[in-house]
Amino acid sequence: MATAIRRTRSTEAFFGRRHGKSLRPAPLAALEAGLPRYRLDLTCPPPEPLSTLFPAEVDNVRLEIGFGAGEHLRHEAGRFPRTGFLGVEPFVNGLAKLMLDLKREPLSNLRVYDDDATRLLDWLPETSLAGIDLFYPDPWPKKKHWKRRFVSAVNLARFARVLKPGALFRFASDIDGYINWTLLHIRANPDFEWLAGHPIDWREPFDGWPGTRYERKALREGRKPTYLSFRRR
Ligand SMILES: C[S@@+](CC[C@H](N)C(=O)[O-])C[C@H]1O[C@@H](n2cnc3c(N)ncnc32)[C@H](O)[C@@H]1O
User: Fold this and answer.
1) What residues act catalytically?
2) Which residues contact 29 (CB under 8 A, 6 or more apart)?
3) At 211, is the pLDDT very low, low, confident or very high (cuts 50, 70, 90)?
4) Ligand 1 in contact with 225 (CB < 6 A)?
5) Residue nearest to atom 27 of ligand 1 (CA)
6) 127: left (phi over 0), alpha (psi -120 to 50) or beta
7) β-strand 163-173 against 129-135: which pairing, if any?
8) Is 129:164 a contact under the CB 8 Å cutoff?
9) Can you give the pLDDT at residue 108?
10) What is the DSSP secondary-structure string of 150-163?
């Protein structure tokens, strides 16, 4: 069932579906069991330091927005056990898939939030993140919907507030219009610089890249991914 679009605070930047097919018993059970452990409660103020959000001892915290089914998020959390990962995904079926995988292989350096990422960004303390990943955000190709794109002047200001100086904002997309849109927004924002010297820098995947479900679909359909890295000045 699609959730009606409301211009409320909780849907400032979320216009997608919250539910897909009915959940089968195993993902539903994993979701019910996993949320109390992994889900963030934004009604409490963020802990000081933020790294104490995680049962594991971590040195810094990164964020992935719109993790889909969570393949990349889990992969990174496994690769970097001394980093805490926050993942945001309002689509329940994606979240349930992640919870099912976490039931099999728990991770103590990962927490999730299941609503609009702008709410989490506004909750986070200033300069608290070592990185933000936004991979294959909904492209909203029609001009009248461009204002729904997650990359915007307002959201880049949110990123700039929470990122530490030198931290990376990484972006991937298969949609040329969204890539140009993002580059134009970054060019207009003095807080970020694009780290690209050669075409290989945007054609080659990020270090250790496992791919994502959406990317595999794009590749099957003949669209080429572009990978952009921006540094918080
Ligand atoms: C095209 S999918 C890509 C998913 C995943 N990154 C991948 O590559 O497979 C975009 C995802 O962003 C999520 N999303 C859209 N708006 C969002 C928002 N405001 N906050 C957090 N996630 C959002 C959607 O629910 C959707 O799962």
Assistant:
1) 138
2) none
3) very high
4) no
5) 68
6) left
7) parallel
8) yes
9) 98
10) S-SHHHHHHHHHHE
